[in-house]
Amino acid sequence: QVQLVESGGGLVQAGGSLRLSCAASGSISSTNVMHWYRQAPGKQREFVAAITTSGSTNYADSVKGRFTISRDNTKYTVYLQMNSLKPEDTGVYSCNLAQFPMNYWGKGTLVTVSS
User: Fold this and answer.
1) CA distance 2 to 14
2) How far apart are CA 98 and CA 29, in angstroms?
3) Where are the beta strands (DSSP E) in 27-89?
4) Helices (H), strands (E): how many in the chain?
5) Residues 12, 109 contacting (CB under 8 angstroms)
6) DSSP 3-state of 14
7) For the chain, is the Cβ count within 10 Å smaller at the N or the C terminus?
């Protein structure tokens, strides 16, 4: 089993920054992909960013150039640095760990961006 715990959410004004963290514990494979997803009120969950164990990254078009995903493999932690935040970035941000054949999810952390 794997447990994921997100932190770092909160209320921020448009144009501000936040840094989210997701700490993983349990039976973690040496090869995995960690993702951030978000769900805005009344909308479906959407992909935000992903990073492999080796550091390859992928971003949703809506956050490219503003968000940066990184990870510390020694701490089993993934980060999401969010800059130039917009009201449309508001939502619950959840961490996902994909390691074959399982997917694990955290409970999420709320990010609210005020205009």
Assistant:
1) 34
2) 9
3) 33-39, 46-52, 57-59, 67-72, 77-82
4) 0, 11
5) no
6) coil
7) N
Amino acid at 82: M
The label of the residue with tokens 């700490």 reads: 23
Q: Residue 59 CB: number of other CB atoms within 10 A? A: 18
Spatial distance between the Cα atoms of 66 and 64, rounded to a whole number of angstroms? 5
Both tokens of residue 27?
A: 């039976």
Each of the 115 residues of the chain gets a pLDDT tens digit; together they read 899 999 999 999 999 999 999 999 999 998 999 999 999 999 999 999 999 999 999 999 999 999 999 999 999 999 999 999 999 999 999 999 999 999 999 999 999 999 9
For residue 104, what are its two tokens? 């694990």
Chain centroid to CA 41? 17
Residue with tokens 């694990």: 104
